[in-house]
Amino acid sequence: MTVIANILIVLTIVVGILFTIVTVVGILRLPDVYTRAHAASKSATLGVLSILLGVFLHFWLIKGIFSIQLILAIAFLFITSPIGGHLMSRAAYMSGVKPTELTVGDDLAKVVADVKRNYSTSHSEKD
After folding, report:
1. pLDDT at 6 (0 to 100)
2. Which pTM value belongs to this model?
């Protein structure tokens, strides 16, 4: 049983390290803030979650300690990291950061233009 537990622990930690390496490469090599935020939020989340899962499994299967703190950390990270990446990308978009020339489409431009038009129309009627 200990051999299987150790294999499972090492496998989850190695997967976490690989996802973390993908995060670093993505942040260094990708062309704009939007693709970098995607690399940072998605693969870093999976990397850290895998490492935390390996640590949780180590304490549970080898040491016999069920750590509720690690479960809460995994849940908190799983919820907050993608949301943080999305909000940073949205803030960059709203502040006018242009995407790379390789970007094919901009689905958010029409929505933002409609909101701005509706906002200016509703505020000009009050004046």
Report:
1. 96
2. 0.80
